[in-house]
């Protein structure tokens, strides 16, 4: 039977390399657009059009301007290391399904315009890390959830229309609910409480165990005899009692 690892949080190179590689890819695409004057926005998500489906995979890597790119890069450099460090076993699944389903949600809900940017993925990460920490009830992850609220609690307003011009609130909303769904569906066995049988405990004494008492020294099944039942008299008296049954007289 598998037991919980003493420390489920292990720092690896991927904690640093994953966010750096992802963000470097975003900047490389943006550099290409500037260098060759090639606007790739048409690779974004265009809702409810078949040709707009390609944006589900490509839109997170496209950004409209340097401010948009910088804001998302900072958020990813914060959220991706947290995801990889605290949820190592689930990190790539969250990334892949987060991009896929948040993009699909944007395609279904979005306004008829090209939707680009990694904001949807960021909302997936924020939502997943917050809710998963609450659901696991693991004290470190609960503390992490409250930290996420402090850092990004204000971003909840950008899931509603007309809050800020030019943002894809539909992508934010889709990402939020996808993160919540992943927190509900994905299992985190590394944080489950360990279960020990009685015979696995260090203070186990076979001589005192009720089950082990059913076996003799050679291991043969030999349960101890059952104690004799004692029939107790429920009425005792030193006085003579005479019973007279009146119902039998005529």
Automatic annotation (TrEMBL):
Q: Which SUPFAM superfamilies match?
A: Rhomboid-like
**Is Membrane among this UniProt entry's keywords?**
yes
Q: Which residues cross the membrane?
A: 12-32, 92-110, 116-134, 141-160, 166-186
Entries under Pfam families matching the protein: Rhomboid
Q: Which UniProt keywords apply?
A: Hydrolase, Membrane, Protease, Transmembrane, Transmembrane helix
In the bilayer, the protein is annotated as:
Multi-pass membrane protein
What this protein is called in its record is: Membrane associated serine protease, rhomboid family
The root-end lineage is:
Bacteria, Pseudomonadati, Bacteroidota, Flavobacteriia, Flavobacteriales
């Amino acid at each position: 039977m598998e037991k919980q690892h003493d420390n489920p949080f292990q720092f690896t190179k991927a904690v640093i390399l994953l966010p750096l590689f992802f963000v470097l890819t975003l900047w490389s695409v943006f550099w290409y657009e500037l260098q060759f004057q090639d606007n790739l926005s048409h690779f974004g998500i265009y809702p409810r059009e078949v040709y707009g489906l390609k944006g589900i995979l490509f839109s997170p890597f496209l950004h409209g301007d340097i401010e948009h790119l910088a804001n998302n890069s900072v958020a990813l450099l914060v959220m991706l290391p947290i995801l990889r460090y605290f949820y190592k076993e689930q990190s790539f699944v969250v990334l892949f399904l987060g991009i896929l389903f948040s993009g699909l949600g944007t395609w279904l809900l979005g306004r008829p315009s090209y939707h680009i940017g990694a904001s949807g993925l960021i909302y997936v990460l924020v939502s997943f890390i917050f809710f998963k920490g609450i659901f696991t009830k693991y004290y470190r992850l609960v503390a992490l959830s409250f930290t996420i609220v402090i850092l990004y609690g204000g971003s909840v307003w950008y899931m509603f229309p007309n809050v800020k011009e030019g943002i894809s609130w539909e992508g934010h909303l889709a990402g939020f609910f996808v993160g919540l769904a992943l927190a509900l569906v994905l299992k985190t066995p590394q944080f489950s409480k360990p279960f020990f049988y009685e015979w696995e405990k260090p203070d186990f004494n076979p001589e005192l165990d009720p089950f082990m008492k059913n076996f003799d020294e050679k291991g043969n099944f030999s349960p101890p005899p059952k104690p004799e039942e004692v029939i107790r008299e429920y009425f005792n008296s030193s006085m003579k009692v005479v019973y007279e049954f009146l119902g039998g007289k005529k």
